[in-house]
Design a protein that fits this description.
By secondary structure, this protein is of the alpha/beta class. The protein has two domains: 120 residues, Rossmann fold; 109 residues, Rossmann fold, CATH 3.40.50. The protein contains 13 helices and eight strands. Strands 2-1-3-4 form a four-stranded parallel sheet, sandwiched between helices. Strands 6-5-7-8 form a four-stranded parallel sheet, with helices on both faces. Strand 7, helix 12 and strand 8 form a beta-alpha-beta unit.
Length: 252
């Protein structure tokens, strides 16, 4: 393993949701990794980690995408994703997906062990102290289910926000309670999902924060959609990478 961040060859897994819905999160992630001194590799043909197929029971499709992912990022010292959901799929669920498959070699097993959610990587691997962003304002943070429960990502994003002099973090009630998205859950159980999202939105608004921040775009899209349906066009919704990396050029 390389001895310093400057020697690290880090693969950036943009994720399909970021690529399609808010690509500036990918650019913000790239900015943060470069600020840490990493040599960043972004495979041009990357697509999906296979999570939607896996969650829906389509194992052959999930395995095909997983093998594609592993081949494209082979040779990287670490792989970083601005998503606890996708990183959790790779680190936690690939082992189950390939438990009876000889194609899942020891090499691939070692590779999955070096997949990190962005804030976890910045805090625990490269130990980034100075954030390139200059955001100033009040924020509240939502703990995404997969990042929290599969990867123990909770203190890391808060530690990074605390290193930004202009940021004041106001904790909402029940920050670790699900926002109601849950991938296919929000489709299969729409009424329950909407109630959960309403509760999350109420907790956000109660803080009086300018914006809500999280580490998974799926949660953010769900929260933002519910805020707007409730008539709230004031509360901003940002991925933590945008806040850490940017200033006035945050995604609108």
């Amino acid at each position: 393993m390389p001895s310093s961040a400057k020697d690290l060859r880090v693969g950036l897994f943009v994720t399909c949701l970021v690529d399609l819905m808010r690509p500036c999160i990918g650019f913000a992630t790239l900015k943060l990794l470069r600020a840490a001194g990493c040599a960043v590799v972004v495979p041009a043909n990357q697509t999906c980690c296979g999570q939607p197929g896996y969650n829906s029971g389509d194992v052959p499709a999930a395995k095909a995408l997983a093998l594609k992912f592993l081949q494209e990022f082979d040779g990287c010292d670490y792989i970083v994703a601005p998503s606890g959901s996708c990183a959790g799929m790779i680190r936690v669920h690939y082992a189950a997906l390939f438990k009876d498959d000889p194609a899942f070699t020891d090499n691939y097993r070692r590779l999955t062990e070096h997949v990190y959610e962005l804030t976890d990587f910045l805090v625990n691997i490269v130990k980034l102290e100075d954030m390139p962003g200059d955001f100033s304002g009040t924020l509240t943070y939502h703990d995404s289910c997969s990042g929290l429960r599969e990867l123990n990502v909770q203190a890391q994003p808060r530690a990074l926000l605390a290193r930004m002099p202009g940021v004041t973090l106001i904790e909402m009630r029940e920050p670790a309670t699900c926002c109601g998205f849950g991938g296919t859950f929000s489709i299969k159980f729409g009424d329950i999902s909407a109630r959960m999202a309403d509760k999350k939105c109420q907790h956000i608004v109660e803080t009086g924060a300018v914006g809500i921040v999280a580490g998974d775009l799926g949660c953010l899209l769900n929260i933002e959609g519910r805020l707007r349906r409730r008539g709230d066009w004031q509360t901003k919704v940002w991925h933590i990478a945008e806040v850490l990396a940017a200033g006035d050029d945050l995604c609108k």
